[in-house]
Design goal:
The protein is an alpha+beta fold. The strands form 7 sheets. A 5-stranded antiparallel sheet has the order 1-2-29-28-27. A 4-stranded antiparallel sheet has the order 3-4-5-6, with helices on one face. The termini are far apart.
Length: 1313
């Protein structure tokens, strides 16, 4: 449909030529996306495809139509089309630009056209094209100020030639019988003059029959002009046509009257509108001529052999009034513009208001008046008033034998169905602003479609064709039956025929009335795109050259979104629709790349070369196309199933393991398996690389936005395929290097990668020392002969040379890793936006495989690729590792560059790297204020996450550097609490105290340091107590002449400070006490509860004669311990540390202290002494000689501890409330690993036997306490407390004046402080 004879004859030549031109671009593929991920450049096979989809704005780099020397398609709809036939020659354009009134005409039969002004007419041939010779003719005299003459082309003078008839307004006629092959040239012509009234002018000339023309004047007078004399030679014979019947009409006139003919006159005020030639009549050599005036329609019968006759002249207003009123409701403003013959009918173009109408009239006899048989209203409305005369008058053109009519307006051409068909078919073609239709002529070639030639001021010569459906369904609304609707046709126009002014002279825009998303536009765009991809588009003809076919589809698919963007309509499509349009082009880009890969593979043989063809056959079989696959499954796939190219990859992923296993047992065995693995990776890269390249290069065009809908490349099977391909490629490198490159094999086997299994059974991660050490120890071996031969194997065939295969496989890993990471990143972004439950698992998998595949590039000699990939995907942990393992010599430069690029994120990762390796010096060393600030924030964050982590012990060093002494003091106190060595704790506390002093001097207004300093002093006193005890135990061992072995020393100390009775009665507590002493002997910091137990468990702590074997220095150091009662010291320790103890721990420790205070005196014995008749002095003396009195007096009188917070009654001192806590939590470390050698060990629960023994010991303490209570301990406690209160309130006694007598046993018992 919609082809002219000239184009049909050249179709095969054009297609052949298009195919050859397109073949020039057959290797244009997009691999820029991955070029940077090989060592220096990609393999040469990839470099040859490095041009990246350089499409024009409309996506048509080279079209088949532009190659044709004949017609070029400008518009092709479902039922109409417009073609460009030729352009105006320069001489014609010059006349059009002169500003003079012009007339223009066309002869489809002769293939000539003309443009004429009042003085000149240029004629040229349409068949020759742009190189046509222009013939200039001098027009007859028209008088001053006259307009353009009426000109007609005479087509029946011979092939390749044409005659010209020109009539000026004054009636001067010139006739050139041949302008091309005439002997006299254009200067030889025939001329004559018409007899016109002074007020009349010639306006139109039309052909009636061969050699006979009719000239019409403004006043409606007609002249017949014969171009041949009676002898058959060229000449002119003009005469006026008579409206009256005279003697010359004779019998014919009388016959006409009998048949109903009339001879009415149109009136003196009537003016000519149009003249048209009709069909033949029953009279030989005669033709019908219709004359339309502003009010009437007349029919003439003219002949070169007979006398003319007026068949009828009717009042057209009266004839059409009823039909117009019925259609529009009123006939006001009814005007007529043109008349044309349609077989036995005559059609009149009229208007009533803004609406144009075409009326069909039919007469029952040749001379009877016609009646209306059809009226169709055009949907097209005129933007401005229409003229009834002149060049701007609408013209009605009806091709002979067709079913369509054309209305040529000033800037538009409307194609509609004949009124008698009753079809609503209507299509409008609009020219661009500034252009206009100068002439229109019907093409009477009796084709299925109706065609008309158009001469346009700027567009040149166009041909418009229309095909109107005829038959029973002709009355169906054509707009509803049109496939895709008008918007789809508009999109197809832009995609396949161009929409910019430089390429298409038609006024064009894709329209949408929707203010938001337009579902109809979206559906139309998707239909066009899908049809292009699956090969069902009628505008993309099938070709034998699959490569050329895929390139054509790619260009057209790209042009869909480009056209929408050019018209500002891309945002009227949903994000999912734009993503689908992009996916369609991606798949075509992938198919094009894959086809080129297969073309190169067909030159070889073997299982690997048939891999893609076998996959295509399997895919077609899975879709139920077994019958078609036998012809050529691979070509069939690329013709019809490009949209399923992702499914092809998923199928390959499923079938590769079985294929590999089958090849392993084949005769060629390992070699075939290696080639298949290599080819599978090439297929994967060939599909995904150009697809992702197109997506990123045109991201702004599609503007999918976030969150992006699911892409076809994010399918889980494709992600799994990429991971498997990377693993297989690395294994292939290892296997090939084992046989052909020993140096590379040693590098691979010596390297530990994240994800490899550690000796402890756990998988290695990026921070493990095993990974870093294995990479750092790699030697370059640049001088190794095998590595040099590997570098020189670049030009060899990988299917023949193992070294070339090894090199190609190494080069594949970078692009494959890039594709793999991109697929995971896109999938994670989409799942995160959708809050999917599997997001965490995907992220974990991606975080595990990314560093593995990055670091595997280092032993393969592709460290620069690893750096670039880590930079692009912001794998900062891998970047830090690569800096130190791949290029340690330039580590400082790398670190500075990455800190500038990634700022704080990279700094935090670097800090984590140092912390993981306990590289505290490197972590704390920095010379940048900004770096110091980041490190401060990192330290604070890590301490908040892990307050007991190792960083807390070193953070104060950085605080000193930045002069934050308040933080120094706080961190040192915290570090001292966590210190295991007592000397270290005491040193840190001393430094913290110094930092508090400096901080107070810098900021004296701070009030919160008073309490902090008080706590610091108490913590220092705790350290001093433990230090004093340690010196005491040292002196004790010295007097006992014992060795310094920690375990033996602890047992000796325990033996010297406990009685056999205690060891026998409380064996479990004795063991606990021994373990505590051993930890103290190893200078480990004891918790407050342990220190209290060391002071309160033994029952003979002061049995040592201090004067024996002790020098003066030892006595001074021990004065704080010995000079005070040990229980008083225990109470003081609990007071100092109470702010940092949990409530249960504090209460349990307080009950332990008072319980053992109560048990330190023999209350049954005291009860026996003071029971009965004893004086008060004895009672007072006995009570004042008790340990309970000394402790109460020390706490109440000397240190004035508050009551009742630090005092317990005997009945409140039982261990039963704390028994479960003491056995299961409190004392568990004493029976676990040694804290001196197993810092941070996880204590195991106590055995049942040990727990029962401890419970028995505490229960025994409770029994003895209950026995004391039964002996009156409560009363004695109250009396002692009363005495202490009296002494505290007595002004006669000071704190140091009271002396206690207890039968010589209290000489060494002194109050403290």
């Amino acid at each position: 449909m919609f082809t002219s004879p000239s184009v049909r004859t050249r179709r095969r030549a054009v297609e052949s030529r298009a195919s050859s031109v397109e073949q020039l671009n057959s290797q244009r593929q997009s691999l820029e996306y991955s070029q940077e991920y090989s060592q220096d450049t990609l393999p040469e096979s990839s470099q040859e495809q490095a041009a990246v989809y350089n499409c024009n704005d409309d996506g048509m780099e080279l079209t088949q139509e532009s190659l044709s020397e004949g017609e070029q398609t400008l518009l092709r709809g479902d039922r109409h089309a417009v073609f460009e036939v030729g352009t105006m020659p320069p001489a014609a354009r010059q006349l059009l630009a002169s500003g003079d009134e012009v007339s223009c005409g066309l002869s489809p039969v002769a293939q000539f056209a003309f443009v004429a002004t009042g003085s000149t007419c240029v004629v040229w041939s349409l068949a020759v094209g742009s190189n046509a010779t222009v013939h200039c003719l001098a027009m007859p005299d028209a008088g001053e100020g006259a307009g353009a003459p009426a000109v007609a082309l005479v087509a029946d003078v011979g092939a390749g030639d044409v005659g010209v008839v020109a009539v000026s307004g004054l009636g001067h006629v010139r006739y050139w019988d041949r302008i091309v092959f005439g002997l006299g040239g254009t200067s030889q012509f025939h001329s004559t003059a018409l007899s016109l009234a002074s007020t009349d002018r010639c306006e139109q000339i039309t052909k009636a029959s061969t050699g006979l023309f009719v000239i019409a004047t403004r006043n409606g007078n007609l002249f017949s002009l014969a171009l041949l004399t009676a002898q058959g030679v060229a000449g002119l014979d003009a005469r006026a046509l008579s409206r009256t019947a005279g003697s010359r009409t004779g019998v014919l006139s009388r016959m006409a009257s009998l048949l109903g003919g009339s001879s009415g006159d149109g009136g003196s005020d009537d003016q000519l509108v149009s003249v048209a030639c009709g069909g033949r009549t029953e009279i030989r050599h005669s033709r019908e001529v219709y004359v339309l005036t502003r009010n009437r329609l007349a029919k003439w019968v003219v002949s070169s052999a007979h006398t003319e006759r007026l068949a009828y002249s009717i009042d057209l207003h009266h004839t059409l009034s009823d039909s117009i009123v019925q259609a529009l409701g009123s006939d006001a403003g009814l005007h007529f513009y043109d008349v044309a013959s349609a077989g036995s009918d005559v059609c009149v173009l009229a208007s009533a208001g803004p609406n144009l109408a075409i009326a069909a009239l039919r007469a029952t006899h040749v001379s009877s008046e016609p009646s209306v048989v059809g009226l169709s209203l055009l949907r097209y409305t005129t933007p401005h008033p229409l003229l009834q005369s002149g060049a701007g008058r609408p013209r009605l053109v009806i091709p002979a034998g067709g079913s369509a009519v054309f209305v040529a307006l000033d800037q538009a051409v409307v194609a509609a169905a004949l009124p008698v068909l009753g079809s609503s078919f209507e299509e409008t073609v609009t020219l661009r602003y500034g252009d206009s239709v100068l002439a229109a002529a019907a093409i009477d070639d009796q084709q299925a479609e109706s065609s008309v030639l158009l001469a346009c001021r700027r567009a040149g010569i166009l041909r418009m064709a229309a095909a109107v459906r005829q038959g029973p369904d002709s009355e169906i609304n054509d707009a509803d039956t049109r496939v895709g609707g008008p918007q789809q046709e508009q999109i197809e126009q832009a995609v396949f025929f161009g929409s910019d002014a430089a390429r298409n002279p038609l006024s064009f825009s894709i329209t949408s009335d929707s203010l938001d998303l337009d579902p109809h536009l979206q559906a139309a765009a998707l239909r066009v795109s899908h049809a292009i991809v699956d090969g069902s588009s009628r505008f993309v003809p099938d070709r034998l050259d699959i490569g050329a076919l895929l390139r054509e589809r790619f260009r057209r698919a790209h042009a869909v979104t480009q056209a929408l963007a050019d018209n500002g309509l891309a945002e009227k499509l949903s994000s999912a629709a734009r993503a689908q349009l992009c996916a369609n082009v991606e798949k075509l880009a992938a198919a094009q790349s894959l086809w080129d890969l297969q073309n190169a593979a067909w030159a070889r043989t073997g299982p690997a070369m048939q891999l893609l063809a076998n996959l295509a056959a399997a895919f077609l079989e899975s879709t139920g196309q077994q019958q078609q696959q036998s012809r050529d499954p691979l070509r069939l796939f690329f013709r019809l199933h490009c949209a399923a190219i992702g499914d092809l990859l998923a199928l390959m992923h499923r079938r590769l393991p079985a294929l590999t296993r089958a090849l392993a047992i084949s005769p060629s065995g390992a070699k075939d398996s290696q080639i298949v693995s290599y080819e599978a990776s090439r297929i994967t890269t060939a599909v995904l690389q150009p697809a992702l390249a197109y997506r990123f290069q045109h991201a702004r065009l599609y503007a999918v936005g976030d969150p992006a809908p699911e892409r076809w490349t994010e399918h889980p099977a494709i992600a799994d395929l990429l991971v498997d391909r990377l693993e297989a490629s690395y294994i292939l490198c290892r296997d090939l290097s084992a046989q052909h490159c020993q140096a590379l094999y040693e590098r691979i086997t010596a390297t530990a990668l994240p994800g490899d299994e550690h000796s402890n059974g756990h998988a290695l991660d990026i921070y493990d020392d095993a990974v870093s050490i294995s990479h750092v120890d790699l030697s370059s071996n640049d001088d190794d002969d095998t590595l040099r031969s590997l570098a020189n194997a670049a030009d060899d065939d990988p299917h023949v040379s193992p070294l070339a295969l090894l090199r190609e496989t190494i080069d594949q890993i970078g692009p494959l890793a890039n594709l793999c990471f991109r697929v995971f990143v896109d999938r994670i972004a989409r799942l995160t936006a959708a809050s999917s439950v599997i997001t965490h698992d995907i992220i974990q998998r991606y975080d595990a495989l990314r560093p593995r595949f990055l670091l595997c590039l280092v032993p393969l000699g592709r460290a620069p690729v690893a750096f670039r990939l880590a930079e692009e995907y912001r794998d900062l942990a891998s970047l830090v590792t690569l800096v130190f393992v791949a290029d340690p010599a330039n580590a400082a430069a790398h670190l500075r560059r990455y800190v500038e690029r990634f700022s704080k994120d990279f700094a935090d990762t670097l800090f984590a790297f140092y912390e993981r390796r306990s590289a505290w010096a490197s972590l704390l060393h920095s010379q940048d204020d900004r770096f110091d600030l980041w490190l401060k924030e990192y330290i604070d964050m890590r301490i908040a996450e892990d307050p007991h982590g190792p960083l807390a012990a070193y953070s104060w060093i950085h605080d000193i550097k930045i002069a934050d002494f308040s933080a120094v003091a706080t961190r040192l106190v915290s570090a001292a609490r966590k210190a295991e060595d007592v000397d270290q704790a005491q040193t840190m506390l001393s430094l913290s105290k110094l930092a508090f002093v400096v901080s107070e001097s810098q900021s004296p207004e701070l009030d919160d340091t008073v309490e902090a300093r008080a706590r610091l002093d108490k913590a220092l006193e705790l350290c001093q107590v433990q230090t004093g005890l340690l010196h005491y135990f040292t002196v004790l061992l010295g007097s006992a002449d014992s060795k310094s072995d920690d375990r033996k020393a602890s047992y000796d100390i325990a033996l010297h400070t406990t009685t056999p009775e205690l060891r026998h009665r409380h064996p479990a507590l004795y063991i606990v006490f021994s373990e505590m002493v051993r930890r103290m002997w190893n200078r480990r910091v004891l918790p407050v509860e342990d220190l209290i137990d060391v002071l309160t468990i033994p029952d003979s702590l002061y049995s040592l004669d201090l004067a024996a074997g002790a020098d003066a220095n030892d006595l001074d150091m021990l004065s704080n311990i010995v000079a005070r009662d040990r229980f008083s010291v225990a109470v003081d320790i609990l007071c100092w540390a109470c702010f940092g103890l949990p409530e249960q721990t504090r209460e349990s420790a307080l009950r332990s202290i008072w319980r053992r205070i109560f048990l330190s005196d023999n209350w049954p014995k005291i009860h026996r002494k003071i029971t009965g008749d004893v004086p008060d002095s004895v009672l007072r003396s006995e009570l004042l000689n008790t340990t309970l009195y000394r402790v109460l007096h020390s706490c109440w009188v000397s240190r004035k501890l508050s009551h009742p917070e630090w005092y317990l009654l005997p009945t409140d001192s039982f261990s039963s409330p704390d028994l479960d806590y003491l056995v299961s939590t409190r004392l568990m470390p004493q029976f676990g690993p040694d804290s001196a050698n197993s810092s941070g060990a996880q204590w195991k629960p106590l055995s049942t036997t040990t727990a029962l023994a401890l419970a028995n010991d505490y229960t025994d303490e409770d029994k003895h306490l209950q026995a004391a209570i039964d002996c009156g301990l409560d009363d004695y406690y109250s009396e002692i407390l009363r005495i202490v209160v009296e002494q505290a309130n007595s002004p006669l006694l000071g704190d140091d004046d009271e002396v206690f007598e207890s039968d010589g046993e209290s000489d060494n018992q002194m109050d403290t402080d």
